[in-house]
């Protein structure tokens, strides 16, 4: 099922692995930043309601 990559198999597969790892890390980082921003926005909204 996997194509024959010949002598480049190690380089190609490691490039795929690194790319996949970077994509996963980018998604995790983005989700964490989103949660952090949402919490900060909720805090600002809470303060603005309290201050009137």
From TrEMBL:
Q: What is this protein called?
A: Heme exporter protein D
Q: How does it sit in the membrane?
A: Single-pass membrane protein
**Gene Ontology CC annotations of this record:** plasma membrane
Q: What InterPro entries does its record include?
A: Haem_export_protD_CcmD (IPR007078)
Q: Which NCBIfam families match?
A: cytochro_ccmD
- Report whether Cell inner membrane shows up as a keyword of the record: yes
Q: Which UniProt keywords apply?
A: Cell inner membrane, Cell membrane, Cytochrome c-type biogenesis, Membrane, Transmembrane, Transmembrane helix, Transport
Protein family (similarity comment): Belongs to the CcmD/CycX/HelD family.
